[in-house]
Structure formats: structure tokens, C-alpha cells
Amino acid sequence: MTYQEALIPLIEDAYNDLFKNAQRLTDKLDYKAAPTCRTPLDMVVECVTSPHFLAPTIANRALAPMDEESYANHGITSLEAARAAWEAAKPSLYAAIRDFPSDQLEVPIETPWGTFPWRDFIAYCYWNPMWHAGQLAYIQTIHGDTDMAF
After folding, report:
1. Structural domain boundaries of the chain?
2. What confidence score (pLDDT) does residue 149 get?
3. Are 16 and 109 in contact (CB under 8 A)?
4. Distances from the Cα of 36 to the Cαs of 29, 33, 122, 133, in angstroms?
5. How many CA atoms within 13 Å lie on the side-chain side of 5?
6. Residue 141 burial (CB < 10 Å; 0-12/13-18/19+)?
7. Which residues of the chain are under the pLDDT cut of 70?
8. Most Cβ neighbours (<10 Å): which of 82, 86, 103, 122?
9. Which CATH architecture has domain 3-28+39-142?
């Protein structure tokens, strides 16, 4: 099994955890711990829209344009719409990951956030939804839900 093949089920699990935790917050999807914080729905939207940037970057092995479309929420205003967006986006993301050449995993990619080997850049597709699933779990705890979705 290649790194790329091993990463895909991890990504799938990360998004499943993200959605499980978000679902437990359905009545608190607009919660903000402070005025400058993002809501649980904002976090989910970030995760489901990032493949619009990540898939072409990985497929073309070059940073995709980072324009307004890259940061658009694509009209996602509910968990149902977020899940539909993820289901629509994941085939191209998984194909890009699966097709990425193993001999290029250590080659660096320069991004506005730093220089990383492709191996780490591709792993963003896993750790970003996991990071936000953890944030959602913390918000669940704040509101008394100690039966975590994990």
C-alpha cells in the first residue's frame, strides 16, 4: 500500500468525525466563543470547500490560483449542504491523491504558509478536518455534551 492509498481512508474517517461532531451541535452551529471566533458551521464549510483548491494543486503539482473562488463558501448554509459539497468534491480529491507519483512526495512545494514536502501538503487533507473535529468536540464539551462522537 502506498502512502497515498493509506491516506485516503484516514481522510474519509476525518470527515466522518467532523460531521459526527457537527451533527451533535446542530442547535449550536452559529455558536461563537468570542466575537472574533468562527462558528462550528464556518469550520465545516472551510473543510468541505478546501478540496476546490487542494485537488487541482495536487493533481497539477503546482499551487492553484488563490482567488476569491478559493475562499468562497459556495452558498453552504447547512450541514446537509456541507455534506453534499464534500460528497461532490471528494472524488476529484481522492483521484488527485491516488495519482500523485510516489517519487515526488519529498519534493518541496512553496506556499504562502511555508515550504513543505508534497507528502506533508497532501496530509493537510487529513489533519485539517481532524483539527476542526477536535475544535467541535471541545465546543460540545463546553455545552455539556461529554459523549464524544469519536
Report:
1. 3-28+39-142
2. 46
3. no
4. 15, 8, 29, 19
5. 3
6. exposed
7. 67-72, 148-150
8. 82
9. Up-down Bundle (1.20)
- Please state, in angstroms and as integers, the Cα–Cα distance from residue 33 to each residue in 29, 77, 132, 142, following that order: 12, 20, 15, 10
pTM of the model: 0.91
Residue that the C-alpha cell 464539551 belongs to:
141
Q: Whole-angstrom Cα distance, residue 61 to residue 31?
A: 37
Asked if 33 and 142 touch (Cβ cutoff 8 Å), the reply is yes
Cell, residue 86: 464534500
Give me the residue label for grid cell 487542494. Answer: 54
User: 87-124 burial by CB neighbour count: b if 16+ within 10 A, else e?
Assistant: eebbebbbebbeebeeeebeeebeeeeeeeebbebbbb
pLDDT on residue 58: 97
Q: How far is CA 41 from CA 19, 64, 103, 121, 142, in A?
A: 10, 25, 37, 24, 16
Instruction: Tabulate helix, strand, coil % of the chain (nearest 5).
Output: 65, 5, 30
